[in-house]
Amino acid sequence: xxxxxxxxxxxxxxxxxxxxxxxxxxxxxxxxxxxxxxxxxxxxxxxxxxxxxxxxxxxxxxxxxxxxxxxxxxxxxxxxxxxxxxxxxxxxxxxxxxxxxxxxxxxxxxxxxxxxxxxxxxxxxxxxxxxxxxxxxxxxxxxxxxxxxxxxxxxxxxxxxxxxxxxxxxxxxxxxxxxxxxxxxxxxxxxxxxxxxxxxxxxxxxxxxxxxxxxxxxxxxxxxxxxxxxxxxxxxxxxxxxxxxxxxxxxxxxxxxxxxxxxxxxxxxxxxxxxxxxxxxxxxxxxxxxxxxxxxxxxxxxxxxxxxxxxxxxxxxxxxxxxxxxxxxxxxxxxxxxxxxxxxxxxxxxxxxxxxxxxxxxxxxxxxxxxxxxxxxxxxxxxxxxxxxxxxxxxxxxxxxxxxxxxxxxxxxxxxxxxxxxxxxxxxxxxxxxxxxxxxxxxxxxxxxxxxxxxxxxxxxxxxxxxxxxxxxxxxxxxxxxxxxxxxxxxxxxxxxxxxxxxxxxxxxxxxxxxxxxxx
Length: 520
Known about the structure:
By secondary structure, the protein is of the alpha+beta class. It has helices spanning 123-134, 152-155, 157-164, 167-172, 177-195, 198-204, 227-230, 233-250, 316-327, 348-354, 362-370, 378-395, 444-452; strands spanning 5-15, 18-28, 36-37, 42-44, 48-53, 60-70, 77-83, 86-92, 101-104, 139-142, 209-211, 280-285, 288-292, 334-338, 398-403, 410-416, 428-433, 458-461, 464-468, 483-491, 497-505, 512-516. It has two domains: 1-93, Immunoglobulin-like; 98-516, Alkaline phosphatase D (PhoD) (Purple Acid Phosphatase, chain A, domain 2, 4-Layer Sandwich), CATH 3.60.21.70.
């Protein structure tokens, strides 16, 4: 068999000391199931055909193979599996060991002109591969924009014609069979061409992934356009197609033909009771738990039409399910929460006022519409922050946020001085920002302006503040270069685990570090 893509590894949780990993491969349609070979301590299920793509006129088949390995060794154990001769390797942490984690986001270019700013598109992927050879990472967290769909505006003829229409005509245009077929082929090609690049393909076959999506996995700014455009037939059809391919490639789930009954296949770590989307929760990762909410599937814009639903990032039903899951999380020293867009960051409302006079303003526009501090999302954000602070104190569990999206690296600390959050560290939440692994930083003038407001402390609520930390060179708040983030546990004194957050920045010979202590 000639594989067209893969293996792409995915982490699917730990159950009863069994470490679950899956792999996806793509082969030409009509070829037999892939041949799988595993070492003696790993079991593999029969290859499962999860989709034929393009879904409307297929020529390829996507296979998923589920692997299981006992997590009962005193030391981390490396396993190599073979899928039709293509090898994949993953490392299972020792029993009770917290995983070494790599984090990336923004894996592409929002505009072809951005490619001119870099010498090697995948230089940071090459760097990660080298670091992994020295001391392996157990998990690869991908915080959104794993692919960039922006090219559809010019490369998909039917979409190019739709975007060229006057606004009123766009909102009324039908989601035709031509548009549906064009987008179906586009997303197939997008994933295959992007993810088969050798620099990232090596990593995908060596570190099991956990992926959440963001707007560019759908279209730039998805969920933050006005309601009339958001609910238009073409935009909703576009979202439905992007969602199907997100299921196939980023969640490794069964996807049926678009005109047939949807598959009930769900991720084994899906949070129960959510209304829609792909909300994931992982426990038992040594001293770590991991929460991965879906910030796109249920997003609704700043609505003006009377019959429209309330503006939101996540629906109330799904928030209730997420908080119910959180309330049942057993004792851990740390909770990592992936939020594609930073919860703690600069006040981009100030940037919005200056946008008209800034060079390269397009770099910031979707952030202004999408970000947590925008006026429509502030109440939802405040509730999230309060729940996380209360959880941290009640469970003596350090909460850390990990995000991307904004094309710079940085650190914000959200701190509560309220008596109920104590003085043991529970009232301090670090927001780690790492982006992009491929996408370059915004223009110099835009970064300069953001730096100028970096020292402004945010008053989130009474007794609760948000403050950017000067982690960059010469006291700067932002690191305006491509980067990836390593989150590495350290067994400190008294059996308490610290986390070392190390940014690996293009052009820097040393990493930038933030230490996160557990609740004492």
